[in-house]
Amino acid sequence: MKRGRLIRNIAVGLLAVGLLVVFVYLFVSSPSRRNADGRCGGVVVRINAHQGGEPLFLSPDGVVDELTRHGIVLKGRPLDSIDLRGIEKTLSSLSVYEQVEAFIAPSSATLQIRLKEKHPLFIVQDRTGKSHYVTEGRGTISVRQGFATYLPVVSGDLDLQYATSDVYDLMAVLRRDSDLVDYFGQIYVDASDGIVLIPRIGSTRVIIGKTTDWEEKLRKWRIFASSVLPRRGMNAFAYVNLDYAGQVVARDRYGVQGFGRDEEGELVRLDAVAVSTEPAAPAPAPVVAAPAPKAESRPTSDQLRQDKPKQDKPKQDKPKQDKPKQDKPTGSKPSPAKAPPSKPTPTKQPASKPAAAKPATTKSTASPKPNGNPKKPPTNQSKKK
Question: Residue 147 has what pLDDT?
Answer without folding.
Answer: 72
